Amino acid sequence: KYYWGKIKIINFLICKGMIFMYDVIIIGSGPAGISAALYTQRGGLKTLIISKGSSSLEKAHKIQNYYGLVEEISGKELYKIGIEQAKRIAVEIIEDEVVQISNEKNFKVTTINAEYDATNVILATGINRKESTIKGIKEYEGKGISYCAVCDAFFFRGKDVAVIGDGNYAVHEAEILKPIAKSVRIITNGKSMVQNRNIDVETIKDSVKEVKGKDILEEIEFANGKTIKIDGVFVAEGIATSTDLAKRIGALVEGNNIKINENMETSVKGLYACGDCTGGILQISKAVYEGAKAGLEIIKKEDKNVSN
Prior knowledge:
- By secondary structure, the protein is an alpha/beta fold.
- 28% of the residues lie in helices and 25% in strands.
- It contains seven helices and 17 strands.
- The chain has helices at 2-15, 31-42, 75-88, 149-152, 168-177, 242-249, 284-307, and strands at residues 21-27, 47-51, 92-95, 98-103, 107-111, 115-123, 145-146, 160-164, 183-187, 202-204, 208-213, 217-222, 227-229, 232-235, 253-254, 257-258, 271-273.
- The strands form four sheets. Strands 1, 2, 3, 4, 5, 6 and 17 form a seven-stranded mixed β-sheet that branches. Strands 7-14-8-9-10 form a five-stranded parallel β-sheet, covered by helices on one side.
- The longest helix is centred in the C-terminal third of the chain and has 24 residues, at 284-307.
- It is globular.
- Mean pLDDT is 87; it is low at 1-17.
């Protein structure tokens, strides 16, 4: 009775939308993510795609060198076809921004609006081709400049830090830092703050001219000549890419690429990556292959778990 009572409670909570549990969560809706979903969904695995509703594929004006295309097609058209193809086999797709992944018993994927649990996660959001143009950022990496609050907040306990960014990604980093650091500021670098949540920290809208110091980072200089003393700066411009999310969960990253094995699995068991974020040629054909490979490997692994 106790056992079946628990099952009824769990089913009730799921129906009420309080628990979101999936076999596979795919972050990204481009060729790699959609390709993976086509396999996992057909393989009987409950699959969710979380996407900001766009892909770098959409920026391709005309595509001519992809198998099966008699006529050239725009990236925007091909992206739309992929989404419709996934929806046709009942893949669940939600438009939201992922700000955090954690790994306890299962993976917990945190977005702006909700939290989702999954046995497996596939990172397929591509790469950030735009590096920060702020002078001094590169020079002080590891000397006061960080890209991951979860990874490095401990080193700034009781110190004054700033987060550079203007979106929900920056807000989430600030939330992690706030109970640890002495003070936290969000610097939007001349942009308007765009966020769905409010956080009680100082926001500076001035444009950053330079971050500087001697052996380590010591201050931020703004375009208007103003300066502030600072111990650490966390760069969180734009939205979190696959590489950003991989770093936050402790997966091995080399440069701007996520390290994977022959099965598309990262150094974190159950966490996979495919597409541009793994490096190599940045082509649709490569992304589709890697997505298919990741999907098939997860199916194989889950089938083995069931048989055991």
